[in-house]
């Protein structure tokens, strides 16, 4: 599934699942060659890209829940919703940003107790339930303090307010060159960090696992929980997890050490932390787990191929999405451009030919037969003198020495 990274994308975990064989779009009825259509993950209906994009854009005029456009029995429509990753892959960058804004605006207006993230330009928000003093933005992963109405990572409210008061009262430039144990948070820097593959710590800290000092930009902030670790501890956690699972849990403990943080390390964080060879093993492990989770999965019969598919209904063959070889499910074999009957006949014929070759070899070894020195035709001697004449080319020779016969 090509490099292992391509293998991951081409299998069922790909952003868009493409058709494995020629078909027709269920909306416009246009012919779709292999990999020209999209199989919706949750209902397996197949459409061309153009019809799906048009369906999404029309739906966005009044809603953000995009239904499968297929018509089922009678006039009843398919009630399956397109997945967000399918919508993201089908739309252009600008169209998808409009879709995201539509989703956020609609959800935020429908929530009675919604609170917007304080990071400039961030579209994140949450709906509060009960009494809380802070929240982690689901979009930029920054922790928002509701008591101070500010962002002050790893500082208490008192520390932040004291520092904020001090910096606002100090004349501009008077503090330059002096070290600060608790620098103020640069929101522009936070915004830049949210766009990076790995979010780095913007001030010195300590790794909660090994308790070593983590210098500025020397650690990693996990995006979904904001816990900070040194790279070595995170890498060791990932490697240890892969022996049993593919979901790497944040190694931090919360609630005064009573329980493990439930956050899952993002795939892009894992990719950036591991070496290429280690990440390829992680991807392969993900594929194995994904394949094992489907009861109707079938692996490609090509030796060493990692491809597999999920079967839908009664099918006799499938084309591997990785090596593109046609697999026959009836024979459990690969016989390209041959029917099952033709393939079985060829196997039988090859077996008979192999048997004949073995028998000839035995006759030659026992000197019960020889090959004509001139045309290599097989000659079997049933009796008589040493003088032999080939029936094919009429060459005369001595049986015992294969030398030319002399009159």
TrEMBL record:
Annotated keywords: Metal-binding, Repeat, Transferase, Ubl conjugation pathway, Zinc, Zinc-finger
Keyword Acetylation: no
SMART domains in the record: RING
Source taxon at top rank: Eukaryota
The protein's name: RanBP-type and C3HC4-type zinc finger-containing protein 1
SUPFAM superfamilies, A to Z: RING/U-box
Species lineage: Eukaryota, Metazoa, Ecdysozoa, Arthropoda, Hexapoda
Molecular function as annotated in GO: ubiquitin binding; ubiquitin-protein transferase activity; zinc ion binding
Pathway: Protein modification; protein ubiquitination
GO cellular component, one term: LUBAC complex
UniProt keyword Transferase present: yes
PROSITE patterns cross-referenced by the UniProt entry: TRIAD (PS51873), ZF_RING_1 (PS00518), ZF_RING_2 (PS50089)
Pfam families noted in UniProt: IBR_1
Any single GO BP term: protein linear polyubiquitination
UniProt-listed Gene3D superfamilies: 1.20.120.1750, Zinc/RING finger domain, C3HC4 (zinc finger)
Residue ranges the record marks as coiled coil: none
UniProt organism field: Culex pipiens (House mosquito)
RING-type domain sequence ranges: 25-69, 203-407, 207-251
């Amino acid at each position: 599934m090509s490099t292992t990274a391509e293998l991951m994308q081409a299998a069922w975990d790909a952003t868009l699942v493409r058709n494995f064989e020629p078909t027709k779009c269920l909306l416009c009825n246009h012919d779709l060659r292999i990999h020209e259509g999209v199989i919706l993950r949750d209902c397996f209906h197949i459409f061309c890209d153009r019809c799906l994009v048009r369906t999404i854009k029309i739906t966005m005029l009044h809603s953000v829940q995009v239904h499968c456009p297929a018509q089922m029995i009678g006039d009843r429509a398919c009630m399956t919703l397109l997945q967000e990753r399918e919508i993201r892959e089908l739309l252009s960058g600008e169209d998808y940003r409009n879709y995201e804004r539509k989703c956020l605006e609609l959800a935020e207006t429908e929530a009675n107790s919604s609170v917007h993230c304080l990071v400039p330009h961030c579209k994140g928000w949450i709906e509060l339930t009960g009494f809380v003093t802070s929240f982690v933005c689901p979009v930029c992963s920054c922790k928002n303090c509701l008591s101070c109405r500010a962002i002050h990572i790893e500082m208490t409210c008192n520390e932040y307010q004291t520092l904020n008061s001090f910096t606002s009262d100090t004349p501009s430039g008077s503090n330059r060159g002096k070290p600060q144990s608790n620098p103020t948070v640069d929101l522009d820097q936070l915004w830049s960090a949210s766009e990076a593959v790995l979010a780095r710590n913007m001030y010195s800290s300590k790794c909660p696992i090994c308790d070593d000092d983590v210098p500025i930009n020397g650690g990693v902030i996990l995006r979904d929980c904001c816990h900070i670790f040194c790279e070595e501890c995170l890498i060791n956690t990932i490697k240890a997890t892969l022996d049993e699972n593919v979901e790497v849990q944040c190694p931090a403990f919360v609630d005064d050490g009573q329980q493990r943080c439930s956050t899952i390390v993002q795939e892009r964080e894992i990719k950036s932390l591991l070496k290429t060879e280690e990440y390829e093993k992680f991807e392969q492990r993900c594929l194995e787990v994904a394949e094992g989770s489907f009861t109707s999965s079938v692996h490609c019969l090509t030796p060493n191929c990692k491809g597999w598919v999920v079967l839908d209904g009664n099918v006799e063959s499938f084309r591997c999405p990785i090596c593109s070889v046609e697999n026959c499910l009836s024979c459990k074999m690969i016989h390209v451009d041959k029917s099952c009957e033709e393939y079985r006949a060829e196997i039988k014929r090859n077996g008979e030919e192999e048997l004949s070759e073995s028998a000839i070899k035995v006759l030659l070894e026992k000197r019960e037969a020889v090959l004509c020195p001139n045309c290599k035709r097989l000659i079997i001697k049933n009796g008589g003198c040493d003088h032999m004449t080939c029936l094919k080319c009429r060459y005369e020779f001595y049986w015992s020495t294969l030398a030319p016969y002399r009159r």
